[in-house]
Specification:
The structure is a single chain. The chain is built from 14 helices and five strands. The chain has 337 residues and is of the alpha/beta class. The chain has two domains: 175 residues, 3-Layer(aba) Sandwich (Rossmann fold), CATH 3.40.50; 101 residues.
């Protein structure tokens, strides 16, 4: 692992935050009342997949039916030296199947789910459980979701399904209704700092503060932003926002070029997160100003539409600041994407 890089969730021993969620899973497993399917929902990069693998390891060691939870250093903890931990980390555990988005469209297709269902119907080979982790479950296409639904409706005994979803609203209502929902919130500031001290000790307190603000408490998003030059981009965006309704055209040109220079959408998405954080801060300071509320909603829809429809990102940046300039002059009419 290099500095500034969070280990893969299946390889991460430490776990920060979400004590209620971890405690609920441990308690239900220990009491023998574990539901067969769970949705771990929340923003990207806050530890949902890490919790899923942490719980999978816990069950696969046989601790789910014991009374060991009280003696553990933390709920669901398993030391990295444990053989089960090592096999899960290497992808070699016989009773664990992981499904993730694949292909050019970044989706989970029906064949992957059908293969996982066949796996779950086999007798466990190493433990009392078979576990399926679907990381990015909200990227399952409709056929894949329908295949998953059949499993959720008629689960084999001693099977656990963990659906990790950034946007659970994209899952079919029938899928959601057959799962228990665990909503994980972004980390608070001390938890966020703890993660960054571990994985990026070179970042000082000021850098952590800025990254916390623009990432919304997501260490994964924060480190992605850092790798994309997020702090410099935040300063440039904040400068433009502070100057509204005046717009420095050259500064706007530089931002537009910076966030559209690569064909992938990572820089543009980072711009969207930074802009959203900046607008939210100004709304808190300004109070319930109708023009700014409309502007924030319109900008959010424009960013979503630009990503979904692959619109011209450079033109989107110009249009966003044009709308914000109109809002700053009190001419909020028409600030709707």
């Amino acid at each position: 692992m290099t500095a500034g890089e969070i280990p893969e969730p299946r390889k991460r021993e430490g776990f920060v935050g979400h004590p209620a969620a971890a405690g609920m899973l441990a308690g239900d497993a220990t009491a023998g009342r574990l539901h067969h399917a769970w949705i771990l929902a929340g923003p990207r990069g806050i530890g949902k997949a890490t919790l899923a693998f942490r719980f999978a390891r816990y069950l696969l060691t046989g601790q789910g039916g014991s009374l060991l939870a009280e003696a553990e250093p933390a709920p669901l903890h398993l030391a990295a030296e444990d053989p089960v931990f090592r096999r899960v980390a290497s992808g070699g555990h016989a009773d664990l199947r992981v499904v993730e988005p694949a292909g050019a469209r970044g989706e989970i297709r029906v064949d992957a789910i059908r293969d996982a269902v066949r796996f779950l119907r086999l007798t466990p080979g190493e433990s009392a459980w078979r576990v399926l982790v679907v990381d990015g479950a909200d990227s399952m296409n409709p056929n894949a979701q329908n295949a998953a639904l059949k499993l959720l409706e008629e689960p084999p005994p001693n099977v656990l399904v963990l659906l990790v979803a950034h946007r659970p609203s994209l899952l079919l209502p029938t899928v959601r209704s057959r799962c228990r929902m665990l909503r994980l919130a972004p980390l608070d500031r001390p938890e966020f700092d703890e993660v960054l001290r571990e994985v990026a000790p070179e970042l000082d307190a000021e850098a952590c503060a800025r990254l916390f603000e623009v990432s919304g408490g997501s260490p994964g998003a924060a480190l992605e932003l850092e790798q994309l030059g997020g702090r410099a981009l935040k300063e440039a965006v904040d400068s433009l926002l502070d100057a509204l309704p005046e717009i420095d055209r050259q500064a706007l040109d530089r931002i537009a070029a910076a966030v559209t220079e690569n064909r992938d959408a990572a820089h543009f998405q980072a711009f969207g997160r930074i802009l959203a954080a900046g607008l939210a801060g100004r709304l808190r300071a300004a109070g319930p100003d109708a023009a700014w509320l409309d502007a924030e909603a319109g900008v959010s829809r424009l960013l979503e539409r630009s990503t979904a429809l692959s619109l011209d990102r450079r033109q989107t940046v110009f249009e966003i600041f044009g709308r914000l300039a109109r809002a700053a002059t009190g001419k909020g009419q028409g600030v709707v994407a």
